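Homework help board

Subject: predicted structure for assignment chain

Our instructor gave us this sequence and asked us to write out the predicted structure in token form, then describe one feature. I got the tokens but I'm not sure how to describe them. Can anyone check?
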Amino acid sequence: MNERRVSAAATEAAEECGCAPTPAERDSFWKLSVTRRGAFGLGALGVAAFAAFGIGSGVSAAYAASYPSWDDVQRAKNNEAAKAAEITRIEGLIQSLTQKVAETQAAADTASDEFYAAQQEYFAAITEAESLQAQADEQSAMAETSARRAGQVAAQLYRNGGDDSALQLFFSGSADNADELLSRLGTMDKLLEYNRSVYDDAISARNTAQSLTDQAKVARDERDRLQQVAEQKMIAAQEAADAAQAALDEQAANLETMQAQLAALKDTTTQTVAGYQAGVAAREAEERARREREAAEAAANGGGNGGGGGSAGSGGWVRPHGGGRSSSYGPRTPICGSQGCSSSYHYGADLANGCGAAIYAANSGTVDYAAANGNYGNYVRIQHGGGVSTGYAHIKPGGIAVGRGQWVNSGQVIAYAGDTGRSFGCHLHFEVYINGGYTNPVRFMEDRGVYI
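My token output:
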């Protein structure tokens, strides 16, 4: 297959899946748009982009390779010198394909881990900023309460001795009773002493509140910086994942054929080239049938129980997955296994409906990420507008059914549940974000008539 035919096939594949980037997207994100099931060749992904992930320029020539046709093989088989040259060429192409898949996948894994780390750091910064602001608000309230108390005491003292008539009443009859006078003076001293203490408390609380407010502002600035870092890492991770997918697509489209061509060239028996070609076609048909069976099984497993996935609430919101809630939002005791330990704070809600069960878009919107995301495993994020977005994690290998930039409708199947990332059984980890920051998805969905 030559480069022109590869490019045409890639364009057709991208248009069929609806995941081809728009012109605006091609101009953004480092000018590196490569669709999830797009071009077999990676000409759009420059050498500089691979270098950013540690991929050397030595493999760039392989990415522009042109592949032999069966006619090329037949002609070479009839001439020993040509056959030897074609064998060398095909072996080099196979090696380059394998190298490209390994390198692009390694780059995608690194970018995925960096995105996850940046996202979690951003979430931690949100918690820190909110905690400091809450402490500042508490100290401000204490300062206000203490100041009000001090004012009340001062007013009482003024009423008891603030003018001559009050003083006369205060001391009337006291000359005949020194003990009563001393008692009244002592009471006033105690009130003065108490008022000084209350005043000092008010000043201390006010100063503490100001200090915490200043710290909270610094924390919010850091939170905003980390949000930008996380978004940049997300873009990098998506681009790296697209590159890895394109490399896999190229390998899938050409490797088996080239292996059969190589076997045909090395074969000294009477088996014909046409026989090898027919074998490749038969295996491709079997693979297509297998994929169709898997898709049908996944669709049949999508109905759910314990709360059906796709069940509707208000405002277009639907339940993103069937099954019961296996873990809720908030602090939790970490679970540990061979792949490590879960986090001590759960930013989402887990719904368990079995491996391969359908995952639905919680509302209509645009997919802005569809790839691996560190400990979240395979992950999809959808922007719904108004600053609201949703995240879907631990999707099964090959289970993402949408691509970046794709519009999805409320209740549309976007993926299939799995156990990727740091997971302990097949489930959907579902998150809701407000302006990029996490929020309680259980409460958010309940407010819209959806119970998860």
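Reply (TA_rk): Your tokens look well-formed. For the description, you could write something like this. Residues 310 and 428 are 13 Å apart (CA to CA). That's the kind of observation they're looking for.
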